[in-house]
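Repro:
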Amino acid sequence: MTSSDAARTLTGKVALVTGVARGMMARRQGRIVTIGSVAAFKGRTNASIYAVAKAGVTHYTRCLADQLRPYDITVNCIAPGDTRTGRFMGTRTVDQNRLVETGTLDRIATVDEVARVVEVFAGPPGAFVSGQVLRVDGGGQCWPA
């Protein structure tokens, strides 16, 4: 990811959320869930721009939660680790053993596993949760050490 890609990642999220938030503010209710990454929490020399962009998403989420609180709008962030998206699978050499759903945490997450956490923040269980960043990584890290 180049620095201009990172800037677009963050500014794109800001523009999208700003547009959506206006309607929510008028209705005085809503739920916003941003998607960050566990990369925001661990410095890496080979992915610093990506990590900085995702750290920006994380902090933007927390700031927005504070700004939109008076309008009864919750704002939270999901920070997935390795997840079987097309982009991830297309840009990484993946240990095939980590793709097997063995019931262990030493594997790559499915998109559905991440989506279910979004449902928590967007649904009734998330009614009184705001400004939170939840790692969805099986307790692991974004990249092996």
